[in-house]
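Journal club prep — side note

Before the paper discussion, L.F. wants everyone to see what a predicted structure for a comparable chain looks like in C-alpha cell form. Sequence:
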Amino acid sequence: MEQTRALVDPQLRAAVESLPGSIRRVAMYHFGWQEADGTPSSGPAGKAIRPALVLAAARALGGDPEQAVRAAVAVELVHNFTLLHDDVIDEDRTRRHRPTAWAVFGIPDAVIAGDAMLALAQRLLAEDAAPAHASARLSTCVIELCAGQQADCDFEDRGPDEVTLDECLTMATAKTGALLGCACALGALYAGAEERAVRAMDGFGRESGLAFQLIDDLIGIWGDPARTGKPVGADLVAHKKSLPVVAALTSGTPAAAELAMLYRGSMNTPGEVSRAGDAVDRAGGREWAQIAAADRMARAVHHLSRAVPDLAQAGDLLALAEFVTRRTH
C-alpha cells in the first residue's frame, strides 16, 4: 500500500486540486491534506486498499501497474465520494481521528464535494486511454453501491427482528464488495485480460470485500477508539444492523432477545452499549462473522486461481487479502 500511495497520491492530489475552490477546500480537508482553515496538514490518509487492488490486479495479469494509475485514482475518488455521503447519512462526526467534512463545512458542502468527486472519477477515465467498458463498469458499480446504501438505510427503519441475514449479506456485497470487485476488474482490463479473467478478478474482489465488511463490522463494535478514530461501539450506538448484529438477532438465543430489546431502546449509556456488545458475542454474532470472513477469503482465492493459475504471480493481491482479514482498525 505504501507503493500504491507513492504512485497514486500525486495524481489523486492533482485531480482534487483541479476542483473549484470551495469544493476543493472540502475535498482537501477530507483527504487530510489541509486543515479546515486551508492551512497544510499531514493528517491521516486512507488505507489505499482499493487503488492497491487495481494496481496489484494489473500486475498479477502481466500488465504495467503504472498504466492503471488513473483507474486507481478514479476508484479512490469513488470510495471517498461514498465516505462523504455515508458520514452525512449516518451522522458520523468523526473520521480518521478528526471531525468529518459535514461536521466542519455543513451537509450541503459535504454532499456537493462528494458529487464532484464522483464526476471527477468518471472524467479521469474518459480522458484516459481506458480499455473498453472500463467507464461503464465503474458506473454500474456506483449504481450497485447506491442500491446497497439504500438497503442499509432501509434496515434502520425496520425492527430488530425484520432483517434477515441473507438480506444483510446482499446489502454488504453491494455496498462494499462491488467496489473492491470493480477495482480488481479494472486492473484486469488495463492488463488486457480476457473477459473470463476479468470476471474472476471481480469475483475475487467481491468476496474479499465481503470479508472486509465482516471485519469492519466487528471493528465497529469492538474496535479500539484510539485506533479507529470512532467512539467505542459506534455501530451499536447508531443501531446499525451490521452482519454480526443480524447474525446475533436471528440466532434464536436468549441473548438475541436481549439484544433486540436493547435495539428497540435508545442505547445512549456506556453500560447499554457494553451490554449490547456482550449480547452480540453471547448470541454467536462475533464468532459467526469471524468464520464467515475466513470462508469468504477462501472463496476469493478460488476466484483468483481461475484468473491467475500460478498464485505466486499474485503475491500482492494475496497480501492485501491477508491484510483485510487480519486488520484491527
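L.F.'s comment for the group: The mean pLDDT is 93. Keep this in mind when we get to the figures.
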